[in-house]
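Project standup — Tuesday

K.O.: blocked on the structure for the chain from last sprint. Re-posting the sequence here as requested.
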Amino acid sequence: MANGLDFEKPILELELKIAELKSLAADGSIDLSGEIKTLEARLEKVRREVFESLTPWQKVQIARHPQRPYTMDYVRMIMLDFVELHGDRMFQDDKAMVGGLAKIDGDKVLVIGHQKGKDTKENLMRNFGSAHPEGYRKAMRLMEMAEKFGTPIVAFVDTPGAYPGIGAEERGQANSIAHNLREMIGLKVPVIVIVIGEGGSGGALGIGIGDKVYVMENAYYSVISPEGCAAILWKDRLKAPEAAEVLKLTAKDLIGLKIIDGEIEEPLGGAHRDPEKAAQAVKKCIKKALKELKAVPLDKLLERRYEKFRKMGSATLFDL
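H.V.: unblocked you, prediction finished:
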């Protein structure tokens, strides 16, 4: 498999050997079924040993995998009748932030999310998933439209952080994110947030205020990237693995700290190994959350959302 990570090398080597044996046996002149079966059993064992004991830093690496499904992949796999909407009505359309109307098994939703690129050209167009102020303003415009028509909102978070360039700052990056935080707390429709890859800093929070917040098994959600934390605390970005450990950025840690509502299980090896299976897990989570939230009276929904974020920080590392 291309784009293998360092800790995946034993797995990739076995996969290559199996592929070679299958190629040799393809014409039927030699029976290698026994050897192939033995290697496949060994591969399954090694795969489980590796992926069931990942460190936080290794999960960060999987969250950044270039073949990992992005927002538009999930839209394509689990939603129908998607109509993309563009622009913030003030400056321009930010392609690092996508959004539009769609249906999930008949349920109408407004979906928004960060979008990365599949190759260098698209990544440059999408700004590597780092949105500008106009991206957050577009997201807010669409969410206000959803509120007007009573449409639930689904937000997919996947960004290393909001774009920190001079132009973005001049156009009010901090203000646009702060505005979203304030307004999302009071949206009069259910809001479901799912961190599907990177959940970096204010860039993630800009669309991250929800009644239900979930993080995928190999995604991360953090106030800062491990590299940024390492550069500040140790003056050495190579300390990123240690930083990832102390940041408590994995789904399990975040559940313990009462920051998120749950973890979405991924296929063994990560969502990029079986995107369809990962998408079905995401869809199941969204449908369950929608059913629960629609049954809550509006005044209670808003009260719960407010209290949810007010209470964050009451749990400490000692509670883990």
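K.O.: great, moving the ticket to review. Residues 177 and 206 are 5 Å apart (CA to CA). The beta strands are 80-84, 97-104, 107-114, 153-159, 191-200, 212-216, 220-222, 262-264.
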